[in-house]
Amino acid sequence: MKNLKNSGIEWLGEIPEHWEIKRLRYVGYIFGGLTGKTAKDFNREYQKGFKPYITFTNVCNNTIIDSNKMEYVSIGDLETQNKVLKNDILFLQTSETFDDIGKTAIYLDDKEVYLNTFCKGFRVEKSAYPLFLNYIFISLTYKRYFLSNCSGFTRINLRQEHLLDIPLILPPLKEQEQIANFLDEKCEKIQNFIEKKEKLLSLLQEQKQALINETITKGLDKNVKLKNSGIEWLGEIPEHWEIKRLRYVGYIFGGLTGKTAKDFNREYQKGFKPYITFTNVCNNTIIDSNKMEYVSIGDLETQNKVLKNDILFLQTSETFDDIGKTAIYLDDKEVYLNTFCKGFRVEKSAYPLFLNYIFISLTYKRYFLSNCSGFTRINLRQEHLLDIPLIFPPLKEQEQIANFLDEKCEKIDSLITKIKKQIELIKEYKTTLINEAVCGRMDLNKG
Question: Taking residues 127-149, what's their average pLDDT?
């Protein structure tokens, strides 16, 4: 174990006694991103006279800049702009969220490239090994430093003087390189593990989607006779099943009306009632009753309540992926629905859980996508919802299919949850590993 000394900086604690503390300004310098550019100067694809530049998201989503995800900016022959060089470290100095502020990524290629306006670059001149420095900045200890020194509300900022005054813990240069190489090797193994688990997650989700789609369109009896549904995108269905439009099995109702920002709160307060948020519908197929928020509802106020077995639609969204998503409410508690969703209440001929499986199937997802419109905001009009042609087995068979899918999907979801937990734990281990290594708290031979 290394001999330690007090770093003299409370949030750093003890460090190995042969390590130094230096401010960032004494090992290199900060440079800015692109200046004097307007929207017309940028393009996602290459065109003549344009050069690659590193986007905000390329810094935000990586610790090493991904050279395959460059976009392009117009650069004149006589124009002076800062170029990014190999081993430059790029900072998110301004962001919309506290989670992103201070994130860094290192550029390891030799190609000519520029930096977006909202980031800063740091170029090492002496005493620091760039890859080690990058690991310092992405460590948990330094993340906390960035958070304690940023300010702002709608836009979070880390001022340049705070960047330059960062106290760096620096081993001798050779040791910095050894630590960086150790972390490169360990993090590569961890990333390979994560990628394998994420691929397995994707396969399980595809398996679940295929199971739902096959079962709700063909039923449980593999030997059943089929007939042409008369609807091209539905194809063949079991001979004894019916087709009915959604309007004939129930009715649509709206979410909250007449509310302003002051009427909503994430926590309960007197006179407020729970309501189902947009994200609760978007991220679930069964509404999560533990993730309600709250809305002010007067004693004499008339608002539509959500009842048990109501199905809730995303009728409007910012993305095509979310449009038409549904989730079913299975509790008895008094609850309301956000403004941007619609509810559907079954009155006859349909088993609500079967109906929910219909809506989340791939076949009906394609229907929603073919019937929505919009650009910055995607919309699915109410008449298109009401005119959905539904495939209906007899009511008892609907229930059997829903029960079968409940059982099968629960097993798949259990595996998905287990794998997500494994990914979460290995990411936590990676965070701890980096932090312990760059702060000198571990023996690399035992890491």
Answer: 91
